[in-house]
Structures are given as structure tokens and as C-alpha cells.
UniProtKB/TrEMBL annotation:
It comes from Aminipila terrae. Gene3D superfamilies: Dihydrodipicolinate Reductase, domain 2 (3.30.360.10), NAD(P)-binding Rossmann-like Domain (3.40.50.720). GO terms for biological process: methionine biosynthetic process; threonine biosynthetic process. This is Homoserine dehydrogenase. Residues 160-337 form the Homoserine dehydrogenase catalytic domain.
Length: 344
């Protein structure tokens, strides 16, 4: 029986859902992969940390956090360790980066991943910042250190896009990527089309959890720009950052624009695109008129879609329907399993 030790940075929605899947599938992993996966460290921003090289009691960890808002300060595994201290000196085989996104720098997540890989540890990230800002450097580092580095959850949760390209579309060259990658703007455009005013749509969206407390990163297209950058960096080796994306948000779209589109049999969607132009990848995020009935026009609410054009497999379309946190947790889980599988 092999034992793989994980250090989790961040134990919010993504971290706890991943931990629950891991616990739930423990026996199946043992039986099918002859492996035990232990979590030896968990850090948070303000709720304390846990550390035990023999393995943390995951059920207690998430139950304490959900019941009392922090880890048990009197528990044996309670620790004051910061994320960087765990990364630099903890006992683990895989770092799992699930801290909040800084969309303009990719930090501190990039530093965590870099330092872990420099120590010869494998790395998984759900945080798209490092892939949007420092992918090439991190990928080269992983190769140099002979460690595995995966990031499936960073775009469309656990939907297999990077996996698909790596494992199933070997030697296919991706020549174009397009998609609807930001669900908040999708929701806002749909609600505006019902004749509601912008402020009401945002207020209602916040209430039901479709819109962030500060929606500007979504509305101004930054989130979509970070996602298309991550996709293009990995699938087309673009080596760009979100600043290189020709970006227009939906903040200036009015009900009149939506009605005019409707009269032409069209619908407005915030479309992300990456194509080759003069040997370089050109990326854009723009409100775009889409024919009603087109595949892109039927992507509603929290669903998202990506279309990949390849030289050998033509155009492929992948839709993620109405995801919730389970898909996020599964994305991280599938990356960890990939590491286990490749070590066998
Ligand atoms: N939620 C999703 O559906 C989803 C989907 C795909 C990707 N992601 C990505 O996954 C990551 C986590 O998302 P989430 O939804 O789990 O966020 P979340 O619920 O806000 O949780 C973030 C966690 O990170 C902790 N944290 C903050 N700063 C930290 C630091 N310096 N070191 C260690 N932990 C730190 C927070 O602790 P405190 O609570 O104490 O601050 C909390 O435990 C983000 O990068 C996000 O973009 C999320």
C-alpha cells in the first residue's frame, strides 16, 4: 500500500468539498489504486491551521470549521503555521493550492506552488491566478524538478479540458479556443433581457449567490479574461497574461441593445476567444451577437461552454451544465488521482 501525503492551502468551499470526496472515496482508492491518501497539513487565512504528519482527522476538521467557524484550538493537531511555513517545512508529497484568487497578480498562490515544486513536491491548484500569470515558468519548473503539476479546476471546475487535451487528444494541435466562461455575466444578460433594471438584477443575483459581493471583476470581464488566458496558456502555449486580452465587459450593455439584438434574431453573450494571428495568440473577451439557436446561445445561467478547434479532431464542444461545489471538489480530486495513477 502506497501512502501519499497532501498539504491543503485554503479550506473554504473548494477545500472542504474536496476533503469530503476524498473521505468518501477512501476505501475505493485503497482497493483500486492500492493507495492511502492522507492530509498532513491544512492552512486557512484566519481560522487557524492543522498539522499532523501521521494524518489529520478530516471529518473533525470540516465539522469544527462549519460548526464553530474555526479549527479546534485545543485539538492536538492545531497549529499556528502559515501557508508558506507549511509549504517550506511541512511533511507532504503534494501541495494543493485552494487560496483566494488575486486576479491581478496570481499571488500568493504562485509563490506557494513555486516553493513546493522547488522542494520536489507535486502540485495541484484550483486557483487560476498562477495559470493566468505564471504558467510557463511553473510548467518549466515542474519539468525541471520532475514533479507533476495539474490545474483542472481552474477553468469550468472539474470539467475535463486540460485532462482531455493531455490524455486523449495527444498530438492534436489546438488552433482556436472560444467559449462562455463567466456565469455571472451570463446570468445578468439573461435577467436584463427579461426587462429588469441593472441594479435590481445585481441585488437579486447577490441574494441567490449568482453575483459576488463586488461584481466588478465579473461584469468588467476580468474573470473571463483570466479564464481564457489560462486556457490559451495551456492549450496553445500562448504565454500571455490577462492584461494581454482585448477585454470589454458588459457594463455598457443596455436593454435597448438586447432588444435590438432580439429583433435581428440574435442574443448578446460575453464571448471569450483565442486565435492565432501572425504567429501569436490573440485573445479577446467581448459582448458578442450570437444567432438564436446557435450552441452558444443556449448556454444559460451558471452553465458554461468551451469550443476547441484542433487540426486532427476538428471542433469539439464541451458544456458544463449547472455546476455546484461538487464539480469543483471533483476537479481537485481528479488531479490528485492523476498523480497517484502516474506514480504507480
Ligand atoms: N468555489 C468554486 O466553485 C471554485 C471553482 C473553481 C475554482 N475555485 C478557486 O478555488 C480557490 C478557493 O475557492 P473557494 O470557493 O474555496 O474560496 P473560499 O470559500 O473563499 O475559501 C478560501 C479559503 O482560503 C483561505 N485562505 C485565505 N488566505 C489564505 C492564505 N494566505 N493561506 C491559506 N489559506 C488562505 C480562507 O481562509 P479564511 O476563511 O480564514 O479567510 C478559506 O479557507 C479560489 O482560488 C477559487 O478561485 C473555486
Amino acid at each position: 500500500m502506497r501512502t501519499l501525503k497532501l498539504a491543503l492551502l485554503g479550506f473554504g468551499n473548494a477545500g472542504r468539498t474536496f476533503a469530503k470526496i476524498l473521505e468518501d472515496k477512501k476505501q475505493e482508492i485503497r482497493e483500486n489504486m492500492e493507495s492511502d491518501i492522507l492530509v498532513t497539513g491544512i492552512t486557512t487565512g484566519s481560522r487557524g491551521s492543522l498539522y499532523n504528519p501521521e494524518g489529520i482527522d478530516l471529518k473533525k476538521a470540516w465539522s469544527d470549521l462549519e460548526k464553530q467557524g474555526s479549527f479546534d484550538r485545543n485539538g492536538n493537531d492545531y497549529s499556528q503555521m502559515t501557508s508558506m511555513e507549511l509549504v517550506e517545512s511541512g511533511e507532504y508529497d503534494v501541495i494543493v493550492e485552494m487560496t483566494p484568487l488575486n486576479i491581478f497578480t496570481g499571488q500568493p498562490a504562485t509563490d506557494h506552488l513555486r516553493k513546493a515544486m522547488e522542494r520536489g513536491k507535486h502540485a495541484v491548484t484550483a486557483n487560476k491566478g498562477p495559470i493566468a500569470w505564471h504558467y510557463k515558468e511553473l510548467k518549466n519548473l515542474a519539468e525541471k524538478m520532475n514533479v507533476q503539476f495539474y490545474y483542472e479546476t481552474t477553468v469550468m471546475d472539474g470539467t475535463p479540458i486540460f485532462n482531455l487535451k493531455d490524455e486523449t487528444l495527444k498530438f492534436c494541435k489546438v488552433t482556436e479556443v472560444s467559449g462562455i466562461l463567466n456565469t455571472t455575466t451570463n446570468y445578468v444578460l439573461e435577467e436584463l433581457a427579461k426587462g429588469k433594471n441593472y441594479d435590481d438584477v445585481i441585488a437579486e443575483g447577490k441574494k441567490i449567490g449568482f453575483v459576488e459581493a463586488d461584481p466588478s471583476m465579473d461584469i468588467e470581464g476580468w474573470d473571463a479574461a483570466a479564464k481564457i488566458t489560462a486556457l490559451l496558456n495551456v492549450l496553445m502555449e500562448a504565454d500571455i497574461t490577462p492584461k494581454d486580452v482585448d477585454r470589454t465587459g458588459i457594463e455598457k450593455i443596455t436593454i435597448e441593445d438586447i432588444k435590438e439584438a432580439d429583433q435581428q434574431g440574435k442574443i448578446i453573450k460575453l464571448l471569450c476567444k483565442g486565435t492565432m494571428k501572425e504567429g501569436k495568440v490573440a485573445a479577446s473577451v467581448k459582448p458578442t451577437l450570437v444567432e438564436q439557436g446557435d450552441l452558444m446561445s443556449v448556454i444559460e445561467g451558471t452553465s458554461s461552454v468551451v469550443q476547441i478547434t484542433t487540426d486532427l479532431m476538428g471542433k469539439l464542444t464541451i458544456i458544463e451544465h449547472d455546476p455546484d461545489l461538487l464539480q469543483t471538489g471533483y476537479g481537485v480530486f481528479s488531479d490528485v488521482l492523476r498523480i497517484v495513477r502516474n506514480l504507480v
